[in-house]
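Need residues for this backbone.
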């Protein structure tokens, strides 16, 4: 299998897991954004363009199951995946805690983008302070799952000199 088809299969499994399993595994009433974590991991390991493409595909897959405007998650995940890819180019080394940190930062940034874009397009359900509290809890949940998702993405993409090993001891 090519890397693209393996990554497509991972995105499919992540989207199905996010919509079928994690609604039953809520922490503090929220579910994680697995698709966004995949976009973060790919953006971090493969660069901004790959992060944006994977983010768009994963977000669009998730959008098919939501009542929000089609493409809202796709746009959010694509922007966050691209941004992490750009930020990664400035890093000299990769500490062990980086996947969790990126999970929190990406979750907060993605959640705020989702709220901001949602307000602009007229989604009333995203207004208010409750949305900020919800994305904060979701970002913490993302941080818990980010090391596992980064590991899965690394395995799917295979070993490459560009891929930083977040699991090795330094």
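Answer:
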């Amino acid at each position: 299998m090519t890397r693209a088809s393996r990554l497509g299969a991972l995105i499919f499994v992540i989207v199905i897991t996010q919509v079928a399993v994690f609604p039953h595994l809520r922490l503090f009433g929220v579910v994680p954004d697995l698709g966004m974590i995949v976009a973060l991991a790919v953006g971090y390991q493969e660069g901004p363009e790959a992060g944006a493409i994977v983010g768009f595909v994963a977000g669009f897959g998730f959008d098919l199951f939501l009542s929000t405007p089609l493409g809202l998650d796709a746009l959010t995940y694509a922007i966050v995946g691209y941004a992490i890819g750009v930020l990664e180019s400035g890093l000299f080394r990769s500490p062990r805690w980086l996947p969790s940190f990126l999970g929190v930062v990406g979750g907060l940034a993605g959640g705020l983008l989702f709220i901001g874009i949602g307000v602009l397009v007229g989604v009333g359900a995203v207004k208010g302070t409750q949305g900020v509290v919800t994305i904060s809890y979701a970002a913490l949940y993302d941080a818990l799952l980010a090391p596992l998702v980064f590991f899965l993405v690394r395995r799917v993409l295979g070993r490459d000199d560009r891929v930083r090993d977040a699991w090795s001891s330094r």
